[in-house]
Amino acid sequence: MKHKIVYATTAVAALIFGSCSDRTREFDACGQIEATEVLVSAEANGRIVSLQLSEGDKLEAGKEVGAIDSVQTYLQKKELIRKKANAQTKLVDINRQLASQYAHLKNLQTDYDRYKALEAKDAATKKQVDDIVSQIAVTEREISAKKQTYERNNTGIQEEIALYDVQIAEKDDQLNKCRIVAPIDGTVLTKFAEEGELVTSGKSLFKLADMNQVYVRAYLTTAQLADVKLNDEVKVTIEDGTNTPRQYDGRLIWIADEAEFTPKNIQTKDERADLVYAAKISVKNDGYLKLGMYAYVLFK
Prior knowledge:
By secondary structure, this protein is an alpha+beta fold. Helices cover 37% and strands 30% of the residues.
């Protein structure tokens, strides 16, 4: 997904230059209406199975407007889920597997207690007690060895399952990227693709512009910088060709850090200015403001 700013065409720029040359209108800066533009691109390869939008449509952020064929990716995910389930059946319940050995060990320990008591009454020999001690030690070693083997086996299987989880997550991400979603609230400016087309990742699908909050790109002279600051309120007058042009309240939201030579299509209040600072004035759009419209800015 790419972001860029809308700029005027050469023809509009020429019109602006002519309008800016009108010295009868009171203004501190002049420019044109622009908006932030988002180029929505495909994030997957495949055929577009749906793309439900037209130029001029207003979309809400997060709205799904289309999809790219995802059948193969879905089937690959199902296959991975089956493999994961198969791997899980190989996990060993260690306690259940060693249940008989633990029971045998418990019996030996009971016998040891009994023979130890008998030995104290001279009813059993020391050799009988020692034999049981030896059997207990052997049984404990067998249990420890089998337990270690089972744990090592389970660890390998758990790593295999974790790998399947990663691969399934990758497929989920690929499936999500097959969805075509509006990234912002905006108006569709241009549609570049249609249903049925084969696309590759990065292919442009459509272009959106946030027309709710537009701005005027104007240029300020060095002398004007001393009288303005960020968040200053300004008055914006739109050049709409009528005798009573619309006026809007605006706010200065950005001033460039470095000066630049005055663009040829821009006229400043001071015609002698060679270096100017670009600035943006935010304006709430009531539906009448269109990209490229010329605007005069007057600082309050």
